[in-house]
Specification:
Number of helices: 6
Structural class: alpha+beta
Shape: globular
Strand order of the largest sheet: 2-1-3-4-5-6-7
Length: 159
């Protein structure tokens, strides 16, 4: 599995993407996932770039609006968001049920709390089936991600 996708944490709507930041910058794409107009305006106001503050600002804004960033890497995948890891898991469950095999290694990263939990999809699926995601707490580890400095953009629509 070598793919990328955005997943809406509330509706579980998703879209396959080649490049997350450039894709979400387009109004029609952001709207297709159900993002509110205010978020779409803020995304439009951020100028995308290759790997600088524009790209990172777009990713941050999208994830702060409740989107989950999925990245497939062959035998493992990463789910990133600005939600607690359990909310990311719940938000991505439908997507993973459709697209992940039981042995796919899933890494869930809560970028706000700098925590991650990693396990095979079948382990996550079992904890969801029993209604006991707290069983996964021993797997939670700190993940020290160095995030680039992002310039805060004020939308012309916020004024």
């Amino acid at each position: 599995m070598k793919e990328g996708a955005w997943i809406h944490s509330d509706t579980q709507a998703h879209a396959w993407v080649h490049e997350h930041a450039l894709w979400i910058h387009k109004r029609t794409h952001a709207a297709s996932l159900g993002l509110p107009e205010a978020v779409i305006y803020r995304l439009e106001d951020i100028q995308p770039d290759a790997d600088g503050p524009g790209r990172h600002g777009l990713l941050r804004e999208a994830m702060e609006a409740g989107l989950i960033r999925f990245r497939g890497h062959g035998a493992h995948c990463t789910l990133e968001g600005r939600l607690p890891w359990a909310a990311i898991l719940h938000g991505a469950t439908g997507f993973l049920k459709r697209h992940a095999g039981p042995e796919l290694w899933v890494q869930i990263r809560d970028l706000n709390r700098q925590e991650e939990v990693c396990a095979a999809w079948c382990v996550f699926e079992r904890s969801l089936a029993t209604g006991r995601p707290d069983e996964l707490l021993p797997l939670v580890q700190p993940c020290l991600l160095r995030e680039p400095r992002v310039t805060v953009h004020v939308s012309r629509h916020d004024l």
